DNA sequence: TGATCGTAGATTGTCGACAGAATGCGATCG
DNA sequence: CGATCGCATTCTGTCGACAATCTACGATCA
């Protein structure tokens, strides 16, 4: 979140990023969760986490509070942390939230006529990843994240990141290997970029937003939100 | 967040809601912020907060972590908490996020054909509040919150609540007394309910969503996002 | 044999303490 | 007289400890 700002343009001074133990614990636990090492419902005991990381319980506890607020961790009634019980039935809601955020990003980009040149690089990555499902999924995620970033709405980007973490966890827990089927990925994203470019010229975002909805929801035919959200 | 579920339907047993000190500290600090007792940029020292509340620093710290994640509090570079530096220039982004969440709620209600009967009560509250700006603002906020709640998307509601807190803080800091001008409040909301009712019949949410955008953004003519977000 | 109760262990909530870093004030030097 | 340096104080980050609560296992009883 706060990367100990280093205004050192020359790079002479090493970035003395003395990350706090809270940040490190947060990052490690989060990584464990999104990597699937810990599954939903699994209890998280701050004492064992602290011992495993060789630190005290206080930083672990604060890290868990952060994770709780960002949705990866929750507290059961009998006071004890556990990985959030996200499952297949939560995916429709999470996907709706994600779609709402992405379309807001698209609308904002069009409204302010922000440049989208950087998206080409992501499409290239996507092209290079054909045949490699994992790489394709990563490039796909990076593309969508880049669009959100282009809107220059920092709070939107922050909550989008939390959201993608939760979706990742829910997918892992549901044993859904690939988010969407990997065919047509390049074509679809090229179409999106084209539509976005067109919207930037005309100033009308409706068409690209509609395509975006179809694209995102189309990747989830396995779930119950098939309607294009009129 | 978790209200120590009491399934005591009979009400014989007192709800032994042993709220943790973290929850209480969180609530108290949050209340102070949204009430305007603490202004953006003001430093928050956990030691003094703890002493003022008569508790230890640990629960205060965890409460601050939660507030940090929900956007009311942030950490300055030189490690120290302060009220988030929200100001007038942040309102456009916050309003965009709020609008995105509300329109998602409206779309979801229409898509699932959820009942909106409970909204009538809120319009009545709004009517009863004519002439009292504070009550009108509260009723207005309650109406919008109710719409979000009707969508039955718990994570949407949670992030919407965080958002409204941030907006409240930003408005307080900008010395903007009333969110929108209070005239026409009843008429506007009646129109929204009518449009929503119509959408529930036709299944087409486009019209009500468009009206919603105009309504929300119209309440903020003072800011720079006037375009109806094509 | 099965269910209930009780106790031992584990785990959390909270506290006080200590070291390191930051802040602010005063002394010193130009 | 003004700017810089140094020191004292304050505050934060982290730790270990203690009590209260919860869990799980085993003993007791019907």
UniProtKB/TrEMBL annotation, chains A, B:
PROSITE patterns: HTH_GNTR. Keywords: DNA-binding, Transcription, Transcription regulation. InterPro entries: GntR_C (IPR011711), TF_FadR/GntR_C (IPR008920), Tscrpt_reg_HTH_GntR (IPR000524), WH-like_DNA-bd_sf (IPR036388), WH_DNA-bd_sf (IPR036390). It comes from the Bacteria. One of its GO terms (molecular function) is DNA-binding transcription factor activity. Pfam families: FCD (PF07729), GntR (PF00392). Residues 19-86 form the HTH gntR-type domain. This is GntR family transcriptional regulator.
